[in-house]
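Researcher: I'd like a structural prediction for the single chain below. Treat it as a standalone chain; there are no partners to consider.
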Amino acid sequence: MTKKRDDFTKRTKDKLKDRVNGLCSSPNCRTLTTGPHTDKAERTNNGNAAHITAASEKGPRFNPNLTSEQRKHISNGIWLCVSCSNIIDADANRFSVKLLHKWKEEAEKYAQDVLDGKVKHIPAMVLNDIYTKDKNGQNFYSRNNLTDTKGKVAKYIYDHEVDFFLTKNTVIAEILNILPETLQRVLKYFNRDGLINMEKRIINKVALKSLFKELDDCIKLIG
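Model: Treating it as a single chain, here is the predicted structure.
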């Protein structure tokens, strides 16, 4: 007999996604979870309406005191990318109900501020390279970190759509004057966030071009 799950309706899932502008609610991610598909009539979705307390018994953070309606209510959901959704369920003690509600509240506030023009959305994958650590472990801004890694790689892929997948990473790294390990890390981020698809050998030129603008905006905002 199949165990009962209190799943969200499609309408609830769509509301959870829209309330954060389609961005992952994890403060360390904030990646965009929806975008275009190679089929021009379709879209790509890398997001998931995750339950804060589990939809069924033995699930992560299950609360037996909730009713079925409460479990599938929008208040019990949080929008995350697929990766972050898996992570929170793999370690329920670390990612508590209280923490996930905090993430949700902050993500919706952030989305509102972006919508109102109070802040500009800069993906975490970009912010990760804006700052570097000094010898005392303190963060400081490094323009070179930003322009010499993801910016260079994205521009190279954009300009070399045909031969990018045919060129060895070591050769590309040498051309861009970066370490092969750095290139591999950036490509992993790009593949995860839908800028490229290494398996199908597809690049998302729209997303790559959008990244250029975000990089420029980021530089203007910080210095």
